[in-house]
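Handout, section B. The chain below has 174 residues.
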Amino acid sequence: MMQNMSPKPPKPSVGNGKSIMMIVVIVLVVVVVALLGIMVYPNVKDKKATSKVEEGIESDAYYAVFLSNGQVYFGHLANITESYPELTDIYYLQLNQQQQQQQAQVQPAEGDQPELQEQTQEKDPELSLVKLGKELHGPEDKMVLNGEHILFYEKLTEDSNVVKAIGEDKEKEE
């Protein structure tokens, strides 16, 4: 009778098992640290971008704020990085009603036959700058905006027609 002569696998030693466990623990720690880094990095990046945006806002400058409903407001902007930025010393443009005039003119055409042509004369739209607070419902001169509806904002220069008109309006009030 022949005995099965296959070699027996060597038994793992106690020291060998500890080193495998140590490698597994190290790999798990590295994976956890990497996942935490991936989750935290966007927040840190956003905070840096937010602070740079907030640093760029000048409290005494006028800004034009364009909203998703087509409205544009002018004023001093604050808390732009928050969900609900604030606008103070607010003005907006109001379109004055204009009348379009249509005239019919008779002009001689080829063959001496008169031809009727309509011409439309359009006036340039008349805009006026209105200070918030003078409306019928008498709002305060502070507006809290939904940040999700701000399309963009622009800082107005000192020689802007809007800033000049605001200055003139303030002189009248004094």
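Note. Residues 48-53, 99-108 have pLDDT under 50 and may be disordered. Compare this with the example in section A.
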